[in-house]
Amino acid sequence: MAKAKTPAERAAELRKLIDHHNHLYYVEARTEISDRDFDKLLQELTDIEAAHPELVTPDSPTQRVGGAPIDGFEKVTHKVPMMSIENSYDEGDMRKFDADVRKALGAGAKVEYVVELKIDGVSMSITYEDGKLAFCATRGSGGVGDNVTSNLKTIAAIPMKLAGDKPPKVFEARGEVYMTKTEFARVNKEEAKKRAEPHKNPRNLTAGTLKLLDPKECAKRKMTFFAYGTGAMEGITIRSQVELADALKKFGFPVNPHTKVCANIDEVLAYCNEWDKKRKTLDYETDGMVIKVNDFAQREKLGFTAKVPRWAKAYKFEAEQGVTKLGAVTFHVGKFGELTPVATFDPPVDLSGSTITHASMHNASWVAEKDVRIGDTVVIEKKGEIIPQVVDVVKADRTGKEKVIVWPDACPKCGGPVEKEETGTSYNFICANTGLCPGQLAKRIEGFARRTRMDIEGLGTEVAIQLVESGLVKSVTDIYKLTKKQLLTLEKFGELKAQNLLDGIAASKDRGLARLLPALTILYLGEAMAEVLAEEFPALDSIVVASADDLAKVKGFGPKRAQLVREYFDSDAGKKVVAELKELGIKTTHDKKAAPAGGLPLAGKTVVVTGTLVNYDRITIEQAIKDAGGKATGSVSKKTDYLLLGASPGSKYDKAKELGVKIITEDEFRKLIGAE
Asked: For residues 406 and 412, what is the distance between their CA atoms, to the nearest angstrom?
């Protein structure tokens, strides 16, 4: 009679069994037991660990969905930047890529390419130390990403520890987190009663799920993973993409099976064209192919241009188009009252794995220029495989029964008057009921809470609409009067979500005048001009009493912007907001930073940033430039003093070289401002 296993022995045995079956399912795409039997094994292990907590190990399969909610995501600096790959859209580009590779490697060099499906998901870095999962991070800016380890642990396709007896000291796997079309449909069906609109596509839902602060909620949406690359490594040598794929599979990662080694560019293009036709048969979204030089030594020789690696190229599939009828047009109201026409298609169109029922049609000028009419046959395209848009009208199909689009006299949200607004050669229609229109208010609430403004965590589009439609918020200042009791009356609001929102609202009170001004949604007063205004008038009270002439003297303002600011603070609504901001304890002053004794290092200098930086994202680098006395602008000109060059820069780099602008690296920038 066999000796009964101790709880510790049985727990260890179960972990090995569960890891084995996970590997079969996710890496080898086969099974030996049913889902029901697998669930029994997992439940048995869960029961043992519940009875014997001392037996729980960090890499136990039960720890995938057991994490408590987190307060927020920490930042992770990638040891090796997560660079992007240049896109190509035609065979000519690909042949030029091949010619450049062969020229750089020299005559007679044998070149092999590895061709992979370009998965339409979210790029991820997963680092293991001594074989154990250490942390997982998003691409972020390419140099710095978010630590999403708690959420990535819920993905069964990602091993909690590397398979094998002798794992490397450090191994960073890179790949794509994605959601299958089947799971996407299931989530949309399950959440149909909770949401006003379904999730738009699997990629957006995946990205949103990874941002959830509660891993248990994240686990309810089954995401998966394909590994295709690596970053930092210690204790292992890999010589080619083929070797890397073998290593990834050996360590327990799923690698996409539809990968091919091609001996020449003709084979590459043939394989790309083959998958352009077959991609719809897959249960996940793809938007192209990635072509990489197989040999790592050749990659090192090829190196990088200022923009991208010379050894890789993405071949994007042509945007899919569909033809249907324009059945009706409705109108959405923006934060400034602008009416945006939204087309409803009859019948809906299936494009790139999703059903398209509606699409924005820009503005009144665009509709007039295209002469779009209700009943027209229209061509629909998904821009970047994500955003649907009307791109053409098939006027040859007109029968004479088509109807010209008539713009409403009254706002569809509030019934207020609609006026025509002309800007140069363009025009649109707007709701003139600025202070009372709920459609405008929801957009303004969302803009108020934006990260670059008052930065209120948890107050996005859906919550803004809920707050306005429920009647809890009738002005931006009402945000600061919300109570937990009120929030708990809203759908999908529990104790944790309500408290997190209230904490975010409380934290926003101290953002200061430069963040508050653009949050008020004053026409033509964005973040950059608000910063300038706050420097010149460091207290809201001083702005409120300043004349239009005084405001016009602010650098970059001019009479039109000054008059709009003046009109806002002269209006009854503006006066009411200012009074309530003070009463609610919102900081309405601006703290000027004291200049160092030697002066600010970038005083009077204009800096343009291009590419991905390691230590900064877009917001923090612009702030660092301002703090050093400089001006951050978005375009290169003869007046530009420095171009700050990051990884994978754009056309600004070429423009700077052409104009002779001084180009500095991130390290040089940090030394310049005294950060190192």
From this structure: 13
The distance of Cα 211 from the centroid of its chain, to the nearest Å, equals: 10
Nearest Cα to 141, choosing from 85, 78, 183, 60?
78
Torsion of CA 139, 143, 146, 149, to 10 degrees: 70
- Identify whether 118 is a catalytic site residue: yes
Angle of CA points 335, 339, 345, to nearest 5°:
120
By CB atoms closer than 10 A (0-12, 13-18, 19+), residue 653 is buried
Structure tokens at 485: 């009791």
Q: Rg for the chain (alpha carbons), in Å?
A: 28
Q: Give the number of residues written for the chain.
A: 676
Question: Is the pTM here over 0.70, yes or no?
Answer: no
Whether the predicted pLDDT of 353 surpasses 70: no
Residues contacting 541, CB < 8 A, separation 6+: 588
Q: Report DSSP letters for 380-416, one per residue.
A: EEEETTTEEEEEEE-GGG--S--EEPPPPSB-TTT--
Average of per-residue pLDDT across 447-456? 88
Helices 438-448 and 461-469 sit at what angle, rounded to 10 degrees? Answer: 140
Domains of the chain: 7-64 (1.10.287.610), 87-316 (3.30.470.30), 321-428 (2.40.50.140), 509-592 (1.10.150.20), 606-672 (3.40.50.10190)
Q: What are phi and psi of 30, to 5 degrees?
A: -145, 165
Cα distances (angstroms) measured from residue 321 to each of 233, 350, 355, 613: 43, 9, 12, 36
Enumerate the H helices of 303-347 as residue ranges: none
Residue 26 has a pLDDT of: 58
Calculate the CA dihedral of residues 415, 419, 423, 424 and round it to 10 degrees.
150
What's CA 632's distance to the chain center, in Å? 23
Query: Is the CB of residue 21 less than 8 Å from the CB of residue 31?
Result: yes
Mean pLDDT of 305-328: 83
Q: Among the options 118, 292, 413, 626, which is catalytic?
A: 118
SS3 273: helix
State yes or no: pLDDT of 17 exceeds 90: no
Round the average pLDDT of the chain to a whole number and report it: 86
CA 548 to chain centroid, in Å, comes to: 39
Q: How far apart are CA 3 and CA 17, in angstroms?
A: 20
Residue 151: both structure tokens together: 């959420």
Task: Take residue 324 and report the two structure tokens written for it.
Answer: 């249907």
Q: Is 652 exposed, middle or buried (0-12, 13-18, 19+ CB in 10 A)?
A: buried
